[in-house]
Amino acid sequence: MNRASLVPETLKEYGAICRRALQSYLTVHGDRGAEYLGDALRDYPERGGRSLRATLCLAVARAFGASIEEALDSAVALEMLHNSFLIHDDVEDDSEVRRGRPTLHVLHGVPIAINVGDALSVLSLRPLLRNRGTIGARLSLRVLEEAEQMARETVEGQAIELGWRRANVVDLGDDDYLRMVLKKTCWYTTIFPTRVGALIGSRDAVDLEPFLRFGFFIGAAFQIQDDLLNLIGDRLRYGKEIGGDLWEGKRTLMIIHLLKSAHRDEAARLGRFLATPRSDKREEDVRWVRDLMDCYGSVAYCQQVAHGLAGAATLEFERGFAGLPESRDLAFVRELPAWVISRA
Amino acid sequence: MPSKPANSKKNPERAKKPELPRTEPIRSWSTIFGPNGAGAPLNAAEQPAAGWATDSVRRGVELGYRVLDDYLRQGASAAGAFAAPPRTWAPSPDDLPRMTERMLQYTSDFTSLWFDAMRIMSNNGGAQPGSDGKATRSSPDRPTEAPGRARWVLDVRSERPAEIIVALDEPVAGELTVEPLRASSGKRAITDAAIRPGAEPGGALRVRVHVPPKLPPGRYTGAVVDAATKQPKGRLTVTLAK
Fold first, then answer.
1. How many domains does chain B have?
2. What is the pLDDT of residues B30-76, one digit of tens each?
3. A68-95 burial string, b = 16+ CB within 10 Å, else e?
4. What is the pLDDT of residues B119-165, one digit of tens each?
5. Is B48 on the interface with A (CB under 8 A)?
6. Could you give the angle at which helices A52-63 and A192-202 cross, rounded to 10 degrees?
7. Which ipTM score applies to this complex?
8. Which domain holds residue A17?
9. Which residues of chain B neighbour A174 with C-beta distances below 8 Å?
10. Is B148 near chain A, with CB under 8 Å?
11. If DSSP codes are grouped into helix, strand and coil, which group holds residue B176?
12. Cα gap A178→B61, rounded to integer Å
């Protein structure tokens, strides 16, 4: 397997394993509201997605010497929680498209979508409890502790971002963005999978802080790239609405850069744009913001910042994974920073 | 006669290395993944000047490390705050025996539940409940007395009123050993305790508990062990009233 295809092919292989295992947790019996829960519960997980989080967890565990079976339930729990977050995010952002199809609340209404998100979140406890049979009680409890921290950090990060939008906060710096992203995105996308993979693989024998560092830098690069793709990506490959973040008034690094760089009048108009509800925004205003980003180099700036963060991730990889024997899984993790900023 | 070398002692001019165009390696985050990095800007107008790009990259990395270090420092100080006990609470000397008593109670309760679960499983022929909560094999509509279920005969001597609880994994057969019944505190124990299956007519179990004189009130508990296999078969608990 060559370097260029290593990451996509590993994502595909481990993603398939995880999706098969996940299905076994999504069966709802008739007397438990299956007709209102069953199909909706399976919808988002069956839409695919890259399975980056689950794959990272499995690959790190295997790089440390664990089997796939030992890490699989933790990876499945994470995927269930991830889909739960997506459903709720789409409601909170009033998004219309997810993975190329209408969002769950567009299909079934907000009440059912929220409940399905809750169900996936609650059901993610089952694979974490099942860990006892695979990795023992002590390690299972450690994984649960990591999961608790991950979930808490994620909702706190989401609260910060939603709070910025509700209060129309415009006085933000790059460090504010990175602090928010560390909590909202990095913890459940890259920090938790790396830490838990190392925890399981080493049987809790290694210090987990280096993996927090690695996870933060690669997660932040990942999020910035995701925000960039929202502006310049290919709609079919990206799977979400192009420009959706502008319509939602999301405080991306590009918006923060633009707020600081623009002239006073432009910044004031931008502030009014961000404060306008999605339904009242006009297409010409969205286009104006996009053009302004080009004018002030906001997109290029953020691409460079993402490059820097990916580079820092590479450095932290060398520190955190030093001494491990060479393997396909180790190579996958090593190639991830480059993939994160080059994906389309 | 050969000419003197140019760098002789009398000649102050010494050979020098040429000025190098650079004195350190060129390393840039912006080129680590390729000449322009992957994900090049949309058009030529957006292509930043090399110095500007390097500044942006460096800024991103420096900010990233600063944010991360702040986060880790906050985490460390929060962990320290949780680790220190609050000043308003301090365990008193009386707390330890009560805590130990509670621990033993929990252990006793857990052991009872465990034996109950084992009994249910053996009555169901080892069937486990399915994911829908129903047993996978049919279970009796109402509990029936298992064949050979023991009856009890108690032989108890005690100065204080005593409650006797026997929890055994049935069926009971073979010789049983009762470990000394101990309380959470104190060194004294009830050592004269025995359970003898089949000692009575009709196969009843004889349970003998002789409490030593002046034994303090409390809960005394000990394991019941199969004398042949040394496997635990249950638990005997004696609670002496005040």
1. 1
2. 444 444 444 433 344 444 455 666 788 888 899 999 999 999 988 77
3. bebbbbbbbbbbbbbbbbbbbbbbbbbb
4. 666 665 544 444 443 333 333 333 333 444 556 788 999 998 898 88
5. yes
6. 30
7. 0.84
8. 3-342
9. 59-60, 63
10. no
11. strand
12. 11
Q: Is A312 exposed, middle or buried (0-12, 13-18, 19+ CB in 10 A)?
A: buried
Decide if B224 is inside a domain: yes
Distance CA B193, CA A248 (A): 76
Interchain contact A41–B (C-beta under 8 A): no
Which among A275, A341, A331 has a CA at the least distance from the CA of A310? A341
In sequence order, what are the residues at sequence separation of 6 or more whose Cβ sits closer than 8 angstroms to the Cβ of residue B76?
none
Chain B partners of A175 at a C-beta cutoff of 8 Å? 63, 66-67
Please provide the distance, in angstroms rounded to a whole number, between the alpha carbons at the two ends of chain B.
Answer: 124
CATH of the domain at A136: 1.10.600.10
A293: closest chain B residue by CA:
B46
Residue carrying structure tokens 């205003």: A285
Q: What angle do CA A270, A275, A280 make, to 5 degrees?
A: 100
Instruction: Give residue A235's Cα distance to chain centre.
Output: 18
Q: Which residues, at least 6 apart from B66, have a Cβ–Cβ distance to it below 8 Å?
A: A175
- Contact between chains at B67 and A228 (C-beta distance less than 8 A): no
Comparing CB atoms, the residue among B38, B60, B71 nearest residue A305 is B60
**Which chain B residue has the Cα nearest residue A126?**
B131
Q: Is residue A342 less than 8 Å (CB to CB) from chain B? A: yes
The distance between the two most distant Cα atoms of chain B, rounded to a whole number of Å, is 135
- Smallest CA–CA distance, residue B160 to chain A, in Å, is 42
Is B8 part of any domain?
no
In angstroms, the CA A97 to CA B163 distance is: 68
Interatomic CA distance for residues A182 and B65, integer angstroms = 12
- The tally of CA atoms less than 13 A away on the side-chain side of residue B217 is 6
- Residue contact A338–B132, C-beta within 8 A: no
- The position carrying tokens 């486990």 is B128
- Considering only CB atoms, B67 lies closest to which of A29, A179, A311, namely A179
Quote the number of domains for chain A. Answer: 1
Q: Which two tokens stand for residue B105?
A: 């109670």
CB within 8 Å: A216 and B68: yes
pLDDT in tens, A108-166: 999 999 999 999 999 999 999 999 999 999 999 999 999 999 999 999 999 999 999 99
Domain membership of residue B183 (yes or no) is: yes
Alpha carbon distance A130, A114 (integer Å): 26
Both structure tokens of A93: 């952002």
Structural domain for B179, as ranges:
98-121+149-240
Do the domain assignments include residue B127?
no
C-alpha distance from residue A69 to each of A25, A57, A250, A325 (Å): 16, 12, 39, 20
